[in-house]
Amino acid sequence: MPSYILKRLLSAIPTIFVIISLAFFLIRAAPGGPFDTDRALPPEVEANLNAKYHLDDPLVVQYGRYLWDVLRGDLGPSFQYRDFTVNELIASGFPVSLRLGLSAVLLAMVIGGAAGIIAALRQNTATDYGVMSFAMLGISIPNFVVAPLLIMIFAVNLGWLPAGGWNDGAFKNTILPIVSLALLQVAFVARIARGAMIEVLRSNYIRTARAKGLPGWQIILKHGIKPAMLPVVSYLGPAAAAVITGSVVIEQIYGIPGLGRHFVQGALNRDYTLVMGVVIFYGFLIIAFNLLVDIIYAWLDPKVRYS
Amino acid sequence: MSSIIQTDAAPTQIFPEDAEVLKGRSLWDDARNRLLNNKAAVTAMIVLGAIVLLVIFGPLLSPFSYDYPDWDNIYEPPSVGDAHYFGTDSIGRDLFVRTLYGGRVSLMVGVVATIVSLLIGVAYGATAGYLGGRVDNIMMRIVDVLYTVPFMFFVILLMVVFGRHLILIFVAIGAINWLDMARIVRGQTLSLKHREFIEAAEAGGVSTPNIIRRHIVPNLLGVVIVYITLTIPQVILIESFLSFLGLGVQEPLTSWGALVNEGAEDMETAPWSLIFPAVFLAATLFCFNFIGDGLRDALDPKDR
């Protein structure tokens, strides 16, 4: 196992390299620069600013310096938020995004998993069709449509929940964003769990358990749920990536001070270092998360052996 | 395909009364029957057809153009009387026409970008799968590396960097969506490769590009069709996502995502400006997903 983990970590190096290079040259190809304002700066001031941030060096030199900085874990100063480094901005925004994302994934696992398993146990009944129709609805309605609709119903019309803002993470403020973010994942997990559970119910060891005369609920709890959740676990990687992307929109809609909002604002303001920092950080995160999921998978499924 | 098994002109009929029963059914006949028996898929096809017709011809039913500001009727609720069937927006533009124009853009992006991803994905996957060995290894390693890249961020960057250009949207979305297609096609190709008719073609001296084009790609058709119907809604979703962030098509042209974004800002004063585009977008995605599911059940005999 340790050698497998090492191999996976080594194979992540080219990925990270591709991510850094793509982000670097793409954002530098953008017209305009980080110091553009409505009134043109005096040329001397602009030259001084460029010199301070080394933006007057040849692009290749800047690229080399940036790679070296990233290697040491330094993502550089932000161009827009002058008093902050990108590391500090990520450190302040990420906990917020993490809380949203983790809650959404957890909600999706529990509710989606339960709904899918129940649908499988009641296959081809009204319950089954109900759950699956709801799942299809969840897959078809994008989160940026769900979010305004939820705001319209629960904040504007009913007045039960705040329409936006973070309020230092008060529980009431987190409900709507988490639900908007989780809905799509709930739907996906429900479909996957249902398919897996149907497969499990047809397998020989379940028939053996039945033949031994074990009560139905015990068969499901002891022998059914774990193997049925395996495909759900392997969906966790893509789910995390989707939640991260979704958070860009959700944070924008609800005005939440997380990382996703930094990214869009940073890109619009040509805040080179901030944009690259967020992309690299999320790239790392997705790779690490995928590795973690694979390890959990091996632990859950004794048939899987990595070498 | 069915021409080989035609029985009606057979010279020797041993059991003439069974001739009707023996009539050959191709894989495609089977699939079509199964699809037409799937009520959800048929309903979805009808609804989607209606949406497409409405999007194409609907604007002719309205006296307004999509960018005409009717200053006397700002935030007009939906009414048949003054021909603003879906109401108007903050500067009096007719939302019925704008929703349908938005639909044209969204559907067009969905289809064109899917074709882009299809071409790249099928070419890449078929080549990797057919050539196999080291080439396959390297090509699939590249796909693996690209899989972990957070592409949505790069699409956003692309739009910010190069401006909001319709063609760029096609290319950007198509270019990130080919990975799944390449993987699926490669897997299918690998299993096709060792079939007798491929060996026969090789023995007959057909060149590799010709084998891929004439024998591999046509046999991938079933999988690819299913995948297309599942990719189009994804692409429409990405496009609306970009438009929602203000990075998609440029004003006064619009798309469903852009309309939902504007509607979300005005939902307290003009809820109809959110509801109509949202319903159209959701209904379209809903239909595509149902058709895709139905096609998969119809074309995949293993799943019966």
Please write out the topology.
The complex is a heterodimer of chains A (307) and B (304).
Chain A: H1 2-28, H2 43-52, H3 59-71, H4 86-121, H5 126-140, H6 143-157, H7 171-201, H8 204-211, H9 216-254, H10 259-268, H11 272-300
Chain B: H1 19-22, H2 27-36, H3 39-57, H4 95-131, H5 133-148, H6 151-162, H7 166-193, H8 196-203, H9 208-219, H10 221-244, H11 256-265, H12 272-299
What do these coordinates show?
The complex is a heterodimer of chains A (307) and B (304). With 307 residues, chain A is mainly α. Helix content of chain A is 76%, strand content 0%. Chain A is built from 11 helices and no strands. The model of chain A has no long low-confidence stretch (mean pLDDT 82). Chain B has 304 residues and is mainly α. Chain B has 12 helices and no strands. Chain B has helices at 19-22, 27-36, 39-57, 95-131, 133-148, 151-162, 166-193, 196-203, 208-219, 221-244, 256-265, 272-299. In chain B, helix 6 (151-162) packs antiparallel against helix 7 (166-193) and helix 7 (166-193) runs antiparallel to helix 10 (221-244). At the A-B interface, helix 1, helix 5, helix 6, helix 9 and helix 10 of A face helix 5, helix 6, helix 10, helix 11 and helix 12 of B.
